[in-house]
Amino acid sequence: MPVGSRDRRSRKAGDLMLHVGVISDTHGLLRPQAVAALRGCPMIIHAGDVGRPEILDELRRVAPVFAVRGNVDNGPWALQLPDTEIVQVEDHLLHVLHDVNALNLDPHTAGFRAVIAGHSHQPKINPGSAGPRRFNLPVSVGRLMVSGAELEAEIINLDL
Fold first, then answer.
1. 3-state secondary structure string, 89-104?
2. What is the pLDDT of residues 47-66, one digit of tens each?
3. pTM score > 0.85 for this model?
4. Which of 19, 78, 121, 159 is the Cys-Cys partner for 129 at CB 3.0 to 4.6 Å?
5. What is the fold of 15-157?
6. The pLDDT of residue 27
């Protein structure tokens, strides 16, 4: 496991479909619309650029949080965040990091079903940016639906 990594595994939820909340690039701003979109998820993954520790505290009021450090996460509080996180949901291993360009392994060969990343603010392989609007990109969060062997991602554009 790379330096700065942590391996935390979730409990199995049986045959129910799990909706895992995915958020990144809050940059110190947690919008009420993002919290509402994540409510009801049994866990939340934050793919970095949290901005300040209170963001994680507020997300933990919604569900347990797995978070990684992004390039704007500085100070003593941020040193507690790993560079990468391995999260198990059902039988699926997820590799979480902030910048996909720092990925130093082949996800498929390593046994990961998905890579969750932030940084680009584009809702493709990441949930986009839920914090201050950047460029002309949407403000969004994501949801990962897990049911048995199925894994499906959804991007939720927030109405602001």
1. ECCEEEEEECCHHHCC
2. 999 999 999 999 999 999 99
3. no
4. 121
5. Purple Acid Phosphatase; chain A, domain 2 (3.60.21)
6. 94
Nearest C-alpha neighbor of 23 from the set 106, 144, 151, 107: 144
DSSP bridge partners of 86? 7, 95
Backbone φ/ψ region at 49: left (φ over 0), alpha (ψ -120 to 50), beta: left
Q: Which two tokens stand for residue 35?
A: 């919290």
Q: HEC profile for 70-82?
A: CCCCCCHHHHHCC
Residue 155 tokens read as 């991007």
Mean of pLDDT values over 98-102: 90
Q: What pairs with residue 97 in β-bridges?
A: 84, 117
Scanning the chain, the segments in alpha helix (DSSP H) are 32-38, 53-60
